[in-house]
Amino acid sequence: MSNCKKCGAEIIWARRAEKQIDGSVRIVPGARANPIDARRFTDGNLVLDSERGIYRFATGNEQEMAEHGGKRLWKSHFAVCPGADDFRRNGKAQPL
Question: What are the residue ranges spanned by the domains of the chain?
Answer without folding.
Answer: 2-83
